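Repro:
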Amino acid sequence: MRKTLLLLTTLLFSTTLFSQIYEPIKWKSSVQEESENVYTLYFEATLDKGWHLYSQKEVETDDIAPTATEFTFYNEDKAYELIGETTEPEGIQKFDKVFEMDIKYFEGKVVFAQKIKRLDTSLSTIKAEVFFGVCDDEKCLAPDIVEFNLKLSGGNINAIERSWTSDASSEQSEKVSGASDHVKNTEEKEEQRGLWSTFILAFLSGFAALLTPCVFPMIPMTVSFFTKQSKTRAAGIRNAIIYGIFIIVIYVGLGSVVTAIFGADALNALSTNVWFNLLFFILLIVFGLSFLGAFEIMLPNSWANKVDRQADKGGLIGIFFMALALAIVSFSCTGPIVGTILVEAASKGGIAPIIGMLGFSLAIALPFALFAMFPGWLNSLPKSGGWLNTVKVFLGFLELAFAFKFLSNADLVLQLGLLQREVFLAIWIAIFGTLGLYLLGKVKLPHDSPTEHISVGRLSMALLTLAFTVYLIPGLWGAPLKLISGFPPPSTYSESPRGFGGSGNEISNNELPEGAKYGEHNIISFTDYEVGLAYAKKVNKPVLIDFTGYACVNCRKMEEYVWSEPEVLKILKKDIVLVSLYVDYKKELPESEQYVSKTTGKKIKTVGNKWSDFQITRYKANAQPYYVLVDHKEANLIDPIGYTPDEVAYVKWLKRGLNNFPKK
């Protein structure tokens, strides 16, 4: 009952939240005279909290990409000339997993500048316009245009104020404010989840490092040293705990230094750069080969000798240098793992490297403190042997597999087609298949000890690894492979996007309805409302209007994570007619079909403008994604909703709408 109430509340909230006209950006312009007949034109955008504006950077793609900001200067009489290009701030840069490319965007206030030289001294006003799109973490708005009239008198600021013509009430304004708070809370929660996942993964990696030949044998040696050298058992426990704390301090210090050198957000920018992705790929390949026994990565012996001499001093200083000696001596095993954690944490930016090192070092330090408190536990530790090398080799295979994730990132940005989905999966199948054979003893590596039989634990890991390998194989034929979502390239970046050996659809291309195409997950969809509505009447099904955009991140998230759910996918393929209206489609309408909107007063020039105006006029909403379920008389079967990442709530909404569809 509580779950049902929660779902209904979610639907009601999302209905009120997304049925709004949003105006999250305001523009103003100014002119500054630099010298005689030389001026700088400034365009300042102020964005509401949580919203962002994309860079002017050109994206070389005809399909899914962010809406780049674009300035146009009208100069038909050649009365002035542009000096250089329109400049913009540094902004925030990251690799976007949805668009599969580097993106750059701005938050808060952003100022663009264009220098000009006046050639005709009688020129007093310059006309310009900016084409742009804005998004937050839940929705995007249709691309918009703002016009400017800049007076060359210098220093004159012209504020651009606009308002939508709608029946929005004060109550709706409160709901928009509530939406901003909701976005803020969502951002904070996602950031916390990201840091927790970094901590947990680093913690588990620390335990993995603990079971390597460089670290594991040092546990009984170090604990025995503290218990024997201390005058009392309490002193031994205290010293071992301090030793563990110093281990944490050293590794967290490393994470702090890395963050301080590169900056909290610079690491994120580096990790999304093509060349750094290639560098990370090479590093992980080197780390992986090292773990497999090809060579050892070691710090100079002189470092360890100097630190050992400092450790002999005793006291807190001696304990600190003992911890430092552990970090240096075990570097050949821990270095690759630490490097991998820092690389992965860098992709999240902020304090993630520090959190990662905290998790890793805590896992390393805990055993030393616990075994010092309970020395009798040492007797239960397994003896050092070949199994330690097996752990190291296992980690080596994982390093090799993760390396190709970074190579894939670089390939996706450059769109070279070198590492498409099938190739990536084939490499992973080879890596994990070989790992499974290694665990079964069918493959031998340089440092392996001779074994007459394998343990139950090793056999269990071999079976799990081989099962995972078998799981990957259907991916070559188009299976979604949700367990590893985010690692391989998307299904659209594939040699055969609709699978090998056939179309992967219930209907062949020859049998597609006129005006329809195959969309995401091979769902038949229309991109023209009237055509889709006519087909829906013919087959007696309701229409799902999907107001979407090529540059809409959360539209892609809904398609990838919610529409792919079996129950949702079944409804979208069998029970409704999908009409996807792209509000940012730049194709110009025939001149005879262009018009001035009665709602916004703007000229509707493109197909995208037409669908955006349709959404604003009929549904008093301008955010995407936005879903409307209608019958053949175009009446709503249920209140529209927007971004709904909970597939259970989305299914509930679809079914309630379908139940209201009149049956013939």
